Amino acid sequence: MDNFASDKGDWKVMSNADNLFLIQDGEYLLNRKNVSTGYSVFTDWMLAVPSFEIAVQMKLEKSSDKESSAGIIFMAQEDGSGAFVFEFNNQQNYRLKQLVGVNYRLLTGENKNNGWVNSPYVNTTVGMNLIQVRCSNRNYDVYINQHYLFSFTELAYKSGKLGITVGPSSLVRVDSFSVFGPLDSTKKSDTETTPCEEVKARLKEELDVIRKENVMLRDSLYSLKKKSQPQNDKSTTVKPKHLE
User: What is the DSSP letter of 235?
Assistant: First the structure.
C-alpha cells in the first residue's frame, strides 16, 4: 500500500515541458501539460494471479480537454504486449480498454463513443473516486465508489505490472494505491510488511475490539436482567400454619 506520505521511490517523479509529477502533502500529483497525448507511469510492483484486489483513490482535478481522463493500468505485460486500462473522465463516464500488441481494444461501450459508458457513480467535482478491481482465477470484477460496474475474463495473463494513466491536459491527484493479495516488488525489503499482512493485522485488531464490546454488552444485559427480576423479601414471608 502507498499512501504517498513520503517518496519511497516506487513512482516516477519528473518535471519537464510535458509533465510535472511529484509526491507532496500525502498525494501523488500528475500534471500532464501536453494537449495531444496522455502518459502512463508504472511501479515495480508485480501482480500474481490467481487472486488479488486493487484499490485506488484518485481524482481528475482539471480537465480542460474533452480527452482529459485519469485511471489505472493493471496486468501490464513486461514485454509490452498487453495490459488493461480503466479510465474515467469528468463527464461521468468510464471505460476499459485492453492493449493488444500495439493497439487498444475497447472492452466497454461502442467504437462511436470510444468505449465510454455513462455512470452516475463516477464523481466529477466532489471527492475522490475509489477504483477497485477484484480478480479471482483470472475473472475480474470492476467497481467504482463501491458500486459494481462489470466483469470480464482474460486467461492469457499470468502476472503483470501496475500503473497510473493520465490523459492530455489533465491534472490528477492520487490519494492512495493499495494492492491486497500476492504481490512482488524488486524494491521490497525482506522485512517490509506486505499489504496482505497489513490487512490481516487490521482485521485482527478490529476483531479484538468487537470481542471486547461483546463482553461488555453481555455483562450489561445480564445486569439489566438481574435488576428487572422481582426480589423476594424474607421478612414478609408467612408460612402456612400447618407447616409451623
Answer: G
Pairing assessment for the beta strands 129-136 and 139-144 based on DSSP bridges: antiparallel
Q: What is the pLDDT of residues 199-218, one digit of tens each?
A: 555 555 556 656 666 666 66
**DSSP sequence for 31-74:** EE--SS--EEEEEEEEEETTEEEEEEEEEEEEE-STT--EEEEE
Q: How many helices (H) and strands (E) does the chain have?
A: 1, 16
**CA separation (Å) from 136 to 57, 118, 133, 160, 239?**
22, 26, 10, 15, 74
Amino acid in position 137: N
As a whole number of angstroms, the distance between CA 140 and CA 128 comes to: 22
Could you read off the pLDDT of 5-44 as tens digits, one per residue? 999 899 999 999 999 999 999 999 999 999 999 999 999 8
What amino acid occupies position 196? C
Output the CA torsion sign for 3, 5, 8, 12: positive
CB 115 within 8 A of CB 90: no
Average pLDDT, stretch 116-122? Answer: 96
Sign of CA dihedral 73, 74, 75, 78: positive
Separation between Cα atoms, residue 185 and residue 175, nearest integer Å = 21
Q: How many Cβ atoms are within 10 Å of 174's Cβ, its own excluded?
A: 23
How many residues does the structure list for the chain? Answer: 244
